[in-house]
Amino acid sequence: MKGLELAEKYYKEYGEPMLKEQFPDVLSQIAVGLIGSGSECFGYDDEISEDHDFEPGFTIFIPGEAFMDSKTAFRIERAYAKLPKEFMGYERKPVGPVGGNRHGVVRLDEFLTEKLGNSLGELSTADWLRLPENTILEVSNGKLFYDGSGTLTAIREGCKAMPEDIRRKKIAGHLLNMAQAGQYNYYRLIKRGEEGAAQLALFIFVQSAIQVIYSLNHALMPYYKWAFRGMRDLAVLSNLEAPLTELLTTPNTKEYSLRKANTVEEIAGVIISELNKQGISEADCGDLEKHAYSVNDSIKDTEIRYLHILAAVRE
Predict the structure, then answer these.
(1) Which residues have a Cβ under 8 Å from the Cβ of 264 and sit 6 or more positions away?
(2) What global pTM score does this model have?
(3) Which structural domain range is residue 34 located in?
(4) Are 42 and 222 in contact (CB under 8 A)?
């Protein structure tokens, strides 16, 4: 059973009745669900995931101390801790006095500050440029089972709505990295016998290509361990998972290096076709660097357009 399904069943069976019976006066202030950094929040969990942090549990998001006193918060924590320790053959881990790592009772403002850097869940242009996409995604992933005020639901929707100019800035920066690392440097490094540096160049090319693919799908890229897995669910360019994987998993011998250099160009060509299809590049060539600057030139907000082309790229 998937962790998200297990969590929702456990909530419906025990969590929802507990909250309705014991805390009817604060139901309008809380939200309940399973969101955040766990693989189960993405639907990527499997039997291997069950070796840690896998249990029937959920998170109760309560307002900050200015809106809910510590006594009420403590009562909710105690009520959660008293829920059945076993459900559908899975054992629930004990939680501390302030809730578990991923489950239990959490102050919403603290959760938002951890993920987004502010307690209101608001994202400015600067935030979209500086924050890792995976932390923004960890606010909007998973599922809410209940949201009394609708506050967290609205915040989650906002985290899905990356501004178009930011999307293009990210694409432009990562296209430039793809051009430099893959099209220009990889084979030159092979010719020099710098196999280690050549592999680093491929890593940068692949990492940047994956980011471009997510951006072309209007999707946020998850934490690196799930980047390839998440590509399989994308509507556009998911077929590039196999050649990108091959670039990282085959040696840089003479036999393979020319083939890999050709694969780099093939991947570039497929991405360029999608750029042209989406109308965000007017360049007419196979040079990713020219497409990077063309995409950057298409940004409407002059302040964002005139930022360094790598302003939205996180190393």
Answers:
(1) 182, 183, 186, 202, 205, 247
(2) 0.92
(3) 3-160
(4) yes
